[in-house]
Amino acid sequence: MFMSTDTIAAIGTALQNSGISIIRISGKDSLNIINKIFISKAELKPNTIIYGKIYDNNTAIDRVLVSYFKAPKSFTGEDVCEINCHGGIEITRQILEIVLENGARLALPGEFSKRAFLNGKMDLSQAEAVINLINAKNKLQTQIATNQLEGNISKKIASLREELVELLAHIEVSVDYPEYDYEEVENDNVISLIDKKVTEIKQILDTYEQGKYIKDGVNVAIIGRPNVGKSSLLNNLSKSDKAIVTDIAGTTRDIVEETINIGSLVLNIYDTAGIRDTENLVEKIGVEKSLKKLDEVDLVLFLLNGEEGITDDELKLLSKIKNKGLKVIVAINKIDKTQKSIFDTILNELNKYQFDNVISLSVINNEGIENLKKAIDDIFSKSNFDYSHELVITNARHKDLLKKAVEYLEQARTEVNNGQPIDIVSIYIKNATKSLGEIIGSDVNIDVVNKIFEKFCLGK
Ligand code: GDP
Questions:
Q1: In this predicted structure, what is the pLDDT of residue 252?
Q2: Atom of ligand 1 nearest to the CA of 232
Q3: Given CB 3.0 to 4.6 Å as the disulfide criterion, which of 8, 20, 315, 366 pairs with 107?
Q4: Atom 24 (ligand 1) nearest CA
Q5: For a substitution probing ligand 1, which of 230, 232, 307 has the most ligand atoms within 8 Å of its CB?
Q6: Pocket residues for ligand 1 (CB within 6 Å)?
Q7: How deeply is 259 buried, as exposed, middle or buried, from its count of CB atoms within 10 A (0-12, 13-18, 19+)?
Q8: Ligand 1, pocket-test mutation among 364, 369, 371, most atoms within 8 A of CB
Q9: Mean pLDDT across the chain, nearest whole number?
């Protein structure tokens, strides 16, 4: 299936000066290539790693360790050799160059993992877990990706499909061989199986919203008038909790100003051009237009200046944001300089609009920051669910396919209730099993496969 069989190579580690770099080679010529460029006193047997030198023609250029995994017992399912060389950018590039000159082709992004999938070493949901794991920014993200890599989605999909496939087989026999006295398929049994599966799939779908927050982070916009303390708050949050971020190839996103960890959540604080200063917002582009920019945001952190009180424009904007259905936390900053009467007036005004999520802050004195973090965590973390152990879906592709499966099953139920013959009903059940199968990569279109692996990094 869509398989290229040439031998590919790429640098598997980040291209920067470091202790070691790894150059990966996969395909039937891997060992041949190594034999042409590598000399060692030891013999390179399968599943061993040996010491020796890499040669460019007759010149030794590096001392390295080379490992060899013989097909099918390797990551890709093909013959794989890996060269562990010194981790300089230049030497790593030179060795890759020599490997390419001796018969390998430069691998495309994700091509090693794609071969692993096509050779049946892992299914599509597990391959997607690899990229989730590489991009993970906190402990929970790594745990969920590892569970997926271990096959928790694969197992669940297999169990969801099993009874449906059995039912389909039963239907086919009874339709194709009516002369055999095969047990009739009862409508009641079909309906109860459909209901059972729909309930199970919906339970998985329910985990997606939270799964998305865990995997992609919560997108936050800090907005407020000039001088309320937005930059100070951002600096304060990022000082202690800055997350390590890598660019994710193939995704276009607005500029994220900071990515920080709060509890088990990652917050992406957005600098959506022009959105930060509410005065500019109202004056320059008009509220409606600028509010559209908040469509990508999961939470608005609306900062007020407690020293000055709340203005009509701020209240208007706040209520429009709330009417949009966005989650909002209002933070009254500069509480160290806020008079009680002004503070009470702000609270009164906010009460009128039923803003109950209000926090007092003094960013400059580091007061209220923990309360703010807790308020965010309370909104986005569901405390009664053990995300590190339960099945959680985090990929939009999985969510869409599960939804499709539910739609097909519900359609099948409608057809049964409308008195349609069982072979018509079975078309919808078949489509549902197909949608479920696409999650793990059976029946999947090559364009989808290519799209998934294109997002991987080079050498993975
Ligand atoms: P921005 O324009 O909203 O980004 O506001 P800045 O973060 O630049 O802050 C504006 C001014 O307010 C700066 O001089 C800050 O030092 C000051 N400021 C920020 N937070 C506080 C606070 O909690 N209390 C007091 N008194 N001043 C603050």
A1: 35
A2: 7
A3: 8
A4: 334
A5: 232
A6: 224, 226-232, 333-334, 336-337, 362-364
A7: middle
A8: 364
A9: 88
pTM: predicted TM-score of the whole model, two decimal places = 0.76
Torsion angles phi and psi, residue 293, rounded to 5? -65, -20
Task: Return the residue whose CA atom lies nearest to atom 22 of ligand 1.
Answer: 334
Domains belonging to the chain, first-starting first, are: 8-122 (3.30.1360.120), 129-207+391-441 (1.20.120.430), 216-380 (3.40.50.300)
Whole-number Å distance between alpha carbons of 428 and 174: 17
Give dist(CA 356, CA 151) in Å, integer: 42
257 alpha carbon – ligand 1 mean position (Å)? 18
Q: How far from 406 is each of 20, 148, 308, 342, 438, CA to CA, in Å?
A: 49, 22, 53, 53, 14
pLDDT at 2 over 80: no
Tokens representing residue 459 in the block: 């050498």
Q: Running DSSP on this structure, what letter comes out for residue 180?
A: S
* Residue pLDDT, tens place only, 347-372: 999 998 888 799 999 999 999 999 99
Predicted local distance difference test score (pLDDT) of residue 254: 47
The per-residue pLDDT for range 251-287, each reduced to its tens digit, is: 334 456 788 888 778 898 876 655 666 666 655 555 6
Nearest to residue 138, comparing CAs of 382, 370, 388?
388
Tell me the percentage of the chain whose pLDDT exceeds 90. Answer: 59
Using the mean position of ligand 1's atoms as its centre, give its distance from the Cα of residue 162 in Å.
Answer: 60
